[in-house]
Amino acid sequence: MSGAEASITREDVAHLARLARIAMTDAELDHLAERLGVILGAVARVQEVAADDIPPTSHAVPLTNIFRADEPQPTLGSAAALAAAPAAEDGRFRVPQILGEPQ
Amino acid sequence: MSELVRLSAAETAARIAARDVSAVEVAQAHLDRVDAVDGKVHAFLHLDSAGALAQARRVDAGELTGPLAGVPLALKDVIVTKGLPTTAGSRILEGWVPPYDATIVERMRAAGIVVLGKTNMDEFAMGSSTEHSAFGPSHNPWDLSRTPGGSGGGSSAAVASFQAPLGIGTDTGGSIRQPAAVTGTVGAKPTYGGVSRYGLIAFSSSLDQAGPCARTVLDAALLHAVIAGHDPRDSTSIDAPVPDIVSAARSAEITGMRVGVVAQFKGEGYAPGVLARFDEAVATLEKLGAEIVEVSCPHFDYALPAYYLIAPSEASSNLARYDAMRYGLRVGDDGVAGAEEVMALTREAGFGDEVKRRIILGTYALSAGYYDAYYGQAQKVRTLIARDFSAAFEQVDVLVSPTTPTTAFTLGERVDDPMAMYLADLCTIPSNLYGGPALSVPCGLSPDDGLPVGFQVMAPVQADERMYRLAAAVEVALGTDRLLEQAPEL
Questions:
Q1: B108, B205, B457, B468: which could form a disulfide with B248 (CB 3.0–4.6 Å)?
Q2: First to last CA, chain A
Q3: Any idea which fold A10-47 has?
Q4: How close, in Å, is residue A36 to chain B by CA atoms?
């Protein structure tokens, strides 16, 4: 399996790009379909390891339910938060239309 | 070149404290050095001369004191700085000025450290050469046609070319240690959770860790001590005392220390000159009284593929925040296009090829039908790698290996071959998956090409002091704190 190319089609990549909200060009889709096959073939080596009964590790240092003290603290004011906005209006972020889209 | 820029951080701070030289003079000498050489090296993306001199004046006024007060530092551009542009090497954040400081920046400022500016890096820290920076690559001071490593090649190049005695890097799969190895500098990845990630722009949250870059082991330890310690603003921060790394770095005493040589990290793909220097360093440690044992860590062979599933998966989720709504680039907002279309056009225009590749790979590995075979399996392999470390640390105090299989490669050589690029992190990735600390210290120049070779020391979680102790012994025995004197004049 090592080094083998996994099968991933241009249509698969186009679907993934839609899921990831990246408007890729046709040339990029072609190129990436080829590249991803090689990379997936290499990373698929993890499947050689017998690990059925092994628990997964999501995090190196297991910590759970970590909360800071429940005390009010200063936060960014709206002016600071909006200073870097691509567009702002009336003290709010101005965004493109969200309702009424085909999807 | 002013002799001030040749000093170590510890010497610089001592001379400033003794009023032998002012912090302003030190800052100016480094700004002059940047002016003289950074046109060739391209370590910095943004220089903050006014801010650096203002901070130096506060040190000279006695307002800020400490073991590194007045020492200049090169800060990787993945750490947010209030009022100073922060791009993470990406067009999508070009021109962004963060409204807050990272915790480590607050701590360094309070300690009197003088931030000179922000350094170049592979976009969102994804790469091993800085060639994936949207703003052009950095160059290795040992040979300008070669990479200074990555992702933190800007910081390593700045430190190696005497533009700053200290740097900050971040290490997700080796981005502090591999650049250190190929530039003849010292770079340390602390225990995961040992240094706050608040204000570190996330790539892979379960792996990312900030740490020090320097020209000596002691300087790295001094900086590590300034930035380490619990931070309530980072829920993964360890709430326990910081190991006594500075004392360990001052001591080179390793008699009786059990040193495990990782059996998996040699052979095919390793440059003969790298292995020769590494073997010599191990032999030297044995003469100094260390006990050398070969240790097998069988699952390390699967660390690279596991990493290239886990890190892109986390990245695909983390980078979803670049949605063109609240900050950063926005493209295609013509009053007609909807939010999702603007989002997709912005991400297409703002992300570079490697970032897109990893987002797509991560999206694939997390998608229904593939999750168990890819991401889930990689997480199980991660468990087995951690178990290999635990078993090894029953036998030995530290593990050692070459930091990277080859010396600095030539710019352009691997940029179109992702798998070849990924191999640069072969030896550094296991410690990220496990969470333990690891460090690279120079062990000489390769007889193959005269370029620096890095010696990696890996230690158990929360035993960061062990890697500093052993690295200090390597440095003293081989005299590698003076290695950069052999680098060519720029």
A1: B468
A2: 39
A3: Histone, subunit A (1.10.20)
A4: 7
State the amino acid at position B6 in one-letter form: R
- Write down the domain spans for chain A: 10-47
Residue of A nearest to B380 (CA): A56
The answer to whether B151 is a known catalytic residue is yes
Q: Does residue A4 sit at the B interface (CB-CB below 8 Å)? A: no
Q: Is residue B136 part of a domain?
A: yes
Candidates B363, B377, B434; nearest CB to A19: B363
Per-residue pLDDT tens over the stretch B309-355: 999 999 999 999 999 999 999 999 999 999 999 999 999 999 999 99
Joined together, the tokens standing for residue B146 give 């070669």
Q: Per the domain annotation, does B472 fall within a domain?
A: no
Is B389 part of any domain?
Answer: no
Alpha-carbon distance B356 to B288, whole Å? Answer: 49
Query: What is the model's pLDDT at position A4?
Result: 46
Domain count of the fold of chain B: 1
For residue range B3-25, what is the model confidence (pLDDT) as tens digits?
999 999 999 999 999 999 999 99
- B380 included as an active-site residue: no
Q: What is the ipTM of this complex?
A: 0.94
Residue of A nearest to B302 (CA): A46
Contact state of A55 with B238 under an 8 Å Cβ cutoff: no
Task: Report yes or no: A50 at the B interface, CB cutoff 8 Å.
Answer: no
Please state, in angstroms and rounded to a whole number, the distance separating the CA atoms of residues B436 and B298.
18
Contact predicate B133/B145, CB 8 Å: no
Considering only CB atoms, which chain A residues are within 8 Å of B378? 43, 46
Is B219 within the bounds of a domain? yes
Q: Residue B128 is part of which domain span?
A: 3-250
Q: Is B367 a catalytic residue?
A: no
Specify the CATH number for the domain of residue B173.
Answer: 3.90.1300.10
Helices B217-227 and B464-478, packing angle to 10 deg: 160
